[in-house]
Amino acid sequence: MITPRFDILGQAISDASRTQMLCELMEGRAYTNKELAAAAGVTPQTASAHLRLLQDAGLVVAEKRGRCVYHRLAGAEVAHALEQLAAIAPADSLHRAQQRKAGGLAQLRSCYDHLAGPLAVAMTRAFLDRGMLVEEQGAFRAVPAGEWLKLGVVLPEKTGRQPFARPCLDWTERKLHVAGPMGRQILDHTLASGWVKRRKHKRGLLLSAPGRAALEQILDLRCGALAAA
Amino acid sequence: MITPRFDILGQAISDASRTQMLCELMEGRAYTNKELAAAAGVTPQTASAHLRLLQDAGLVVAEKRGRCVYHRLAGAEVAHALEQLAAIAPADSLHRAQQRKAGGLAQLRSCYDHLAGPLAVAMTRAFLDRGMLVEEQGAFRAVPAGEWLKLGVVLPEKTGRQPFARPCLDWTERKLHVAGPMGRQILDHTLASGWVKRRKHKRGLLLSAPGRAALEQILDLRCGALAAA
DNA sequence: AAAACCCTTCGCCGCGCGCCGAACTGTTCC
DNA sequence: GGAACAGTTCGGCGCGCGGCGAAGGGTTTT
């Protein structure tokens, strides 16, 4: 009987503590055991067991540096598959509502290797509205435009086998934003140019004043309300 | 803290019996409780509990007809998400080997709503080799050709938002074959024209003599060895 | 060297859940 | 009506696993 080892993966993500950790890791950064333990609300030794399991399932990789062990998602495919799962996850409106009420997730955050959150959705909306991006065949096709250069995006000469700009469904918004190589380039550029900064001890990203100005100048995107963080 | 309800889905697919059932349902057909119980190797009352859980998770829908209850996957998104999961599932070579040894899965079978298995992979290979299909941007683009009509495929006039021919990673082969609307059209046509037939009490599909002849004539596909079933 | 810190391993507890046998409801067929 | 069958509910058993406290390597700091 054919049975892809769903059960191993399912086992890995069937526990609330582990899902919490995975969500944390979806930020794309590497986290220590202790950090993930705190995120899941369990003791370090329990987190250690969970992480070993996630590692065995191939979802997470660990790297030892000094006395700390840094855990990271095993790859973009893992992040992508988890996104797919989130897309069919039952809508938990109550859960989502209370999360908003509690200040919730930042307006801007990283989703593995690209920008996510309401602001990322708004940016993608702007790309589509301005004709810089076209959605077809379930993928995004980038249209050459001067704006891309200003955003630090270098378009490939020819379309490759892998999608350059992949649509990614936002968890909280249930709307599309840009993932894939293009998403990575945008994140890299906005970080490098100081448009967005990583927050110290909180999740999410922060849009700086220059960043706000740049988005308004390049995309005519008014994000005054969004940047109130 | 943001946490898409991975845990509900994970819970649903974390059990071997349930994964077995889901794999059965990936055929695309509807199955009764008893059939799924047999497939998973458990008693009907146990299967009943599992199916209720899968239903609550939104993965499966049930339809009562007479004294039987027919269970089906909740939709194409579910099938797609499961495929994605299978793509990152740890390779279980031992498992796969023993499955081949045991006669394994048919050379041809249905994967939710399209053809799958080695023969489907070979067909896709032929499409690509003959230039009828081009892989780009992570999607398949169909090139107008007379062969398509002979296969019962009607190409859309303009590219839509959803991919017409979506690549689907085969569980057993780990190679691509055609899913999406095109895949559905191909499956429908091959069934309607009697090229392939559903087996009575066994899983998988059977390639008929006319079907073999048609594939050889249209695609120059020699599938003598493949059809030995 | 000692202290502080991060992580892991071990042992134990308790809940949860998968499983089945038995009994019950509802439908179909004779 | 009665028999046969599909499915579900209930009760009880037993394993598995998530959780923590305690103890044991390893690394960094003082």
From TrEMBL, chains A, B:
A Pfam family the protein falls into: HTH_5
Signal sequence extent: none
Domain HTH arsR-type intervals: 1-93
Name by which UniProt lists this protein: Metalloregulator ArsR/SmtB family transcription factor
Species this protein is from: Leisingera daeponensis
Lineage of producing organism: Bacteria, Pseudomonadati, Pseudomonadota, Alphaproteobacteria, Rhodobacterales
